[in-house]
Amino acid sequence: MTVPAVAPATGTGPVRVLIVDDNPDHRTLIRMRLAKAGIDVSEAASGMESLERLDGIHLVLCDYQLPGMNGLETMAEIRRRSDCSVIMVTGAGSETLVVEALRAGAVDYLVKDPGFLNALPLVVERAWRHHDLAMRAAELERLSLLVTSAGDREEILGGIVRGARRLLRADNCTLLLLDGNEPVVQATDGAPLGEPGLVLAKARAGADVQEQALDDPGPTRHLVVPLRSEGAAIGALALVTATPRAYLAEEIRLARTFASFAGIALANLHRLELQTQLVERLQGLNDLRRDLVASVSHELRTPLTCIVGFSETLAQRWERLDDEHRIEMVGLIRQHGHELSDQVNRLLDVAASEVGRLSAAPQPVDLAQEVTDGLALLDPLVQGRAMEVDVPGVRVLADPALLRRALTNLVSNAVKYSPAGTTITVRATVEGDHARLDVVDRGIGLTTEEAARAFEPFWRASTVVRSATRGAGVGLALVKEYMRVMGGDVTASSRPGMGSVFSLLLPLDRS
To answer: Cα angle at 141 between 136 and 147, to 5 degrees?
Structure first.
């Protein structure tokens, strides 16, 4: 007998057989015959001793007549503790025992007749091939289940390289993915790579290799199989051995199978990651919509309550009120009516922007005049607040209505989120081809992270939420949208407790 053509699943060495027999002469004869066939042999004199020597063993030759545990009991314990295959050895004329052993899980049997040593290598080789086929089938089944069911990237890729290394008797298996044109190690199993630079270079070349080139690679230390997803090369599976070896045709097919597993796994993981991101995004949108409904309901209810309350007071007590109180209440109704109208316009603008229907008609306008007119409309809002205005007379391209809405939102925020008595500054400077219009407050301020999110729809800073300050979280998002459709931009800079600066960037009129 020669060394089996298909090597062990756990390495590049010979098949390892454990002889379990209480007769030392029989152990010696069996060991010498198997060693002559190139098989690595260990010995045990009892069932209990055999259980201590299973590490690294592929096949067990187990005699039935043993001290303590008999052969069937020993085989049952071996199968419980390891994946070794067992060949039952019996005396002549014990066919009933053979049947019982095979039913209990033995892969083959050997009868100790006068010529049993001559038949021994053939029985071992036959048992080994059965064992190796079972191990490969079990490993492929495990990997197929892992690829289709597991959601952990490290677990899946680690399982692929472990299975490929074991079943293709490599010293190392490494899975690499292309990042641009450079392969990056994603998972590895086995002895450390002695030549990582060479493996990376081969993997880079292997990612573009034609499949036909793998049909007969010849003796090699580095078998590199391309990984593909939807027809495109995405990386390589590299198998490394300490010495050059030739791969059988079925091993090349198996390597391609593992590469296909990896491609499928990566595609599944990508889809799972996209699904997870989509679910998180949808959940976030649901949370924002829910908060929006609650916030908008509050925002609309407040001015409506005031309008209804003051109008009912006027209707019921008109004759008993003097002109001064009547005028005051009419003014408050008017003020809250404007506030309600502003809220409705904001929501309509949000709806228009979401479907891409928000448009602008930029035209040359005097920035100083537009700011003056816009602030005049905000007199009721900023009454009692110190305003500093420093805007030069420069001409910009802007939609007057959207510019006023943007300014209104920024000044309203400055009033809401800064203490009474502090100054609000509106200033403008020219920077290159743009005018920069700043609205500065001395309010609660934002962190760097919060300032970066300030223009997201429906988002509100945690300090604002805790302070229960009214707002729907759409004002700044609309400002950004107004500036976008006008060809401008908006930025925010802030420090907690130090106030904020919101800046509108408007293109200058060069006509």
So the answer is: 125
Angstrom distance (rounded) from CA 489 to CA 479: 9
Residue 455 or 300, more confident: 455
CATH code, domain carrying 23: 3.40.50.2300
> Which tokens go with 490?
């908006």
Residue ending a domain, among 93, 112, 139, is 139
Shared domain for 183 and 260, answered yes or no, is yes
Q: What is the CATH number of the domain that holds 204?
A: 3.30.450.40
Pairwise CA distance, residues 187 & 189, whole Å: 7
The reply to whether 391 and 476 lie within a common domain is yes
411: CATH:
3.30.565.10
Domain containing residue 384: 363-507
Model confidence at 20: pLDDT above 50: yes
* 134 and 169 part of one domain: no
Would you call 66 helix, strand, or coil by DSSP?
Answer: coil
**What pLDDT, on a 0 to 100 scale, did the predictor assign at position 45?**
94
Give the whole-angstrom CA distance, residue 302 versus residue 335: 12
* Domain annotation covers residue 319: no
For residue 157, which of 145, 169, 172, 175 has the smallest C-alpha distance? 175
Least trusted range by pLDDT, from 20-24, 204-208, 438-442: 204-208
Pairwise CA distance, residues 120 & 438, whole Å: 93
Residue 148 has what pLDDT?
64
Q: Where does 417-489 have alpha helices with state H?
A: 448-453, 462-467, 475-485
**What is the predicted pLDDT for the residue at 459?**
61
Q: What is the chain's alpha carbon radius of gyration, rounded to the nearest angstrom?
A: 40
Q: What is the pLDDT of residues 107-121, one digit of tens each?
A: 888 888 888 888 888
Spatial CB neighbours of 402, under 8 Å, sequence gap ≥ 6? 360, 482, 485, 486
pLDDT mean across residues, the chain: 80
CA distance 458 to 474: 5
Q: What is the mean pLDDT of residues 4-28?
A: 71
Number of domains making up the chain:
3
- SS3 of residue 6 by DSSP: coil
pTM: 0.45
